[in-house]
């Protein structure tokens, strides 16, 4: 396994809470956030990057200030949250490298994209503690992954050259013509093998989909060794995510990088409503999540 350098380890410590577990609020979404703010495509198109920046600033100020880290994008949110004093001095900053959406190959595979002009040097210039790259993987289709694996390797090499922390995330996806039943049955294996691919690329910190079973979590932890992994929420409801986190932590996960499960029904184009929901509903959910994580960190200690 590829160990973190001293500088990378320092960055990792900063994205973790006092209990040593990752607890990051993810709000680097763009298209997905627009779809939550407005159901009509025409209304979504009217939501500017500045308007998304308002929402991300509120999430950062009213929710992420209670966590150890926030994950933001460099298009709408950064450097704004730093320059305007929104980001709490004690809250670490991960900056997403991936562009919103994806291209589709002639064979129907998802091709990930990088945000233009955003590499390790630019993340450092923007005040980032580290970066995060997300790609799509289908481990059962090697030909589907060549483009996306090349992106991961490129980003890992870039961040290694700058000696800056990089979190590697992947998502699986349902293929055209594949039944939901068949896809769902494959998820534990797809997440395990996607983890293997990421580790082979040299990933030092992972952000993973919940793999579906306690056994799959344990196998991922065994495979990852000293490489810490955080579970992502994928927009499931809060109660479901709490259960997933409990299972993941019990079986070796090192924390969470969670977004929509905390704030998806709290954001609004009415900022007064948004702020109130974030301060009450979202923070309450965060506290419950932190309690689950803290419980298992204490047991591990």
From TrEMBL:
Protein name per UniProt: Tagatose-bisphosphate aldolase
Pfam families: DeoC
Recorded family membership: Belongs to the aldolase LacD family.
Native source species: Mesorhizobium onobrychidis
Keyword Cell inner membrane: no
InterPro entries named among the record's database cross-references: Aldolase_TIM, DeoC/FbaB/LacD_aldolase, LacD_aldolase
Domain of life of the organism encoding this protein: Bacteria
Keyword NAD in record: no
Entry-linked Gene3D superfamilies: Aldolase class I
UniProt entry keywords in alphabetical sequence: Lyase
PANTHER family referenced in this protein's UniProt entry, alphabetically: SULFOFRUCTOSEPHOSPHATE ALDOLASE
